[in-house]
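Help!! Second protein's tokens look totally different from the first
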Amino acid sequence: MKSLSLDQARRIALAAQGFDSRHRGSTPNWGAIARTIDKLHLLQIDSVNVLVRSHYLPLFARLGNYDRAVLDKRSLNTKNRHLFECWAHEASLVPMELHPLMRWRMHRARAGDGIYTSMDRFAREEPEFLKSTLAFVEKNGPTRVRDVPEGGKGDGGWWGWSKGKMALETLFDHGLVTTSRRDGFERIYDIPERVIPSEVLARETPPEREVFRQLMAMGGAALGIATEIDLRDYFRLPVADAKTALADCLADGSLIEVEVKGWKAPAYIHRDAKRPREAGGIALLSPFDPLVWNRERAERLFGFHYRIELYTPQEKRKFGYYVLPFLHHDRMAGRLCLKADRENNALLVNASYHEADADPAETARALAPELRLMAVWLGLAEVKVARSGNLAAALRKVS
């Protein structure tokens, strides 16, 4: 078993995630966008729009000032799409070629063994309503929640969803409908045959054991180096199946067991992982970026304790509402509470903090151009830095 230092593990992880110290291009084209998505395997979706929808941010972190409209055209607003929407890590945009590997969750949900017990229960209790809702979509094409019978406001049950919404989401969970497109953040549903290319739907679904082996290896490729928990978390694989998949990956050599100094659990490196002498970048990271979405792994790799405070009462928040970690070279140097003030055409830095081991002046000098680039990318005219946080004074001097 080979032993690696924490610095080596960190550089391997950063390079695997696309932070390999290369200079970002001025205007990345679709080819660069697609290659980045394919390296990550997915873009996690989230509804919060205080800055920008979260699935746009991982690409900005790695590519810089790319055109979001290009991603939109190749994801959910065209027949010539590169991505489709499904449950992966969480709700995610996933490359179309992975569709056969994503069906396992749909098949289990149809069998009453889905990830959400409330949907399993709804399917058992309302089979006729589920069938009639599917028939409605089949007949009418792209469908909003308000279009279907009993699709109005919810009454507090089933997460506060209406009966129609619950039926559509259960059908989505089962893979019997999918996302045709989104209007703002509203999901518009249709049957897969009118959304997913026929040649993709026709591809054979591999046996589950092979699916989990492939997904475990893909998680390893995306992470570079990881523990067993990190690996199965990437695609949210069931524990027992992930353990079998790990054994299969060790047997075929796609993953190799190593020791990382300071890690309590065994680590596994992907056989194709780069082992660079330098890695990292200058980047603001979404709370749902795969580099930091596993908070325990972020702490293990970077010594960075990070929790999202979106649902924390304001008086109990430590850093702010929508806080983005700041990657400076190969370390997490700070965190910022950001907001796009579209009415006043400004990117607001409501609070800014540097980490204890980061120099505030150096951090601010690296961060200020990134904030200006983000403002340009979002179509905002200026950056406004508030006085809150231990980095604010240094950042205000250079902004």
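Here's the second one for comparison:
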Amino acid sequence: MIKHQFLIVICALLVVSCNATGVKIAGVDVGALVNQGVNVYESQIFDERKEQQLGENLASVLVSVAPIHQDKQINKYVNKVGRHLANHSSRPTLNWQFAVLDSDDINAFAAPAGFVFITSGALLQLDSEAELAAMLAHEIIHITKQHHVEKIKELSLQSALTEMVFISADAYQTQNDSDRSSRNLTQWARALSSMATELYSKGLDRDDEIEADIEAVSLMSKAGYDVFAMASVLQRIASITPTDSALASLYSTHPQPEERLDEIASTLDAFDKFEGPNLQERYQKNIFK
């Protein structure tokens, strides 16, 4: 990682002397290479505009795999629960959007900038609003902690540095700054969208998943839910046959539920006297109507 960062700094410094394409050494367009190096550096800076576009790109990937459930009432209910949680998070001002994916899989997903999805298969396995809150809170923490952003930055750095070695002289054609900015953003979006497939198939790092579980418990407490619903969700998942195809994507991207239970045990102990509601009746009225 230090070597990668060093290369980026060197490229950024060289821009003073090689700011345009056309300077060649051994047939390599050094100007284009330097410009690419600056773009690599800039790709590591995720302002709110980039985070929003990244979130939209990743959300579109998820929706292309499984469509939004057509039941508007269920989506409205999930949004209400999700936004209540998000309002108690560290980033309440994001444009939070929650939706149900029409899929038999038992899983939930997050994309940067406030996009959260849960499958209809998962909803059918849950028993209360507090359990729904547990799954949504886990995904909300992924967003507030920018776990996907950091993973994408890691992947984009690896990809961009590889491309620097093979850059061709015609990589940058003459065009005005506005067109170049638009084209670069489009290329950036395409590259990140392709990374999304790898990200959602392999999942985040184990530490990210455990952190999301632990922080989700605290978020549930702030929002007034029964925090022990997090344990009941994990126990429910553990009770399903591991070979069940509905759990394939969850098991491939998350630690085993027994391991996750062990990791949150001490956190739950701190809430042993907290008695938040689980709102079972309200959940079943909205989901199993």
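Reply: Different proteins will give different token patterns, so don't panic. Strands lie at 24-25, 28-29, 97-101, 108-111, 115-119.
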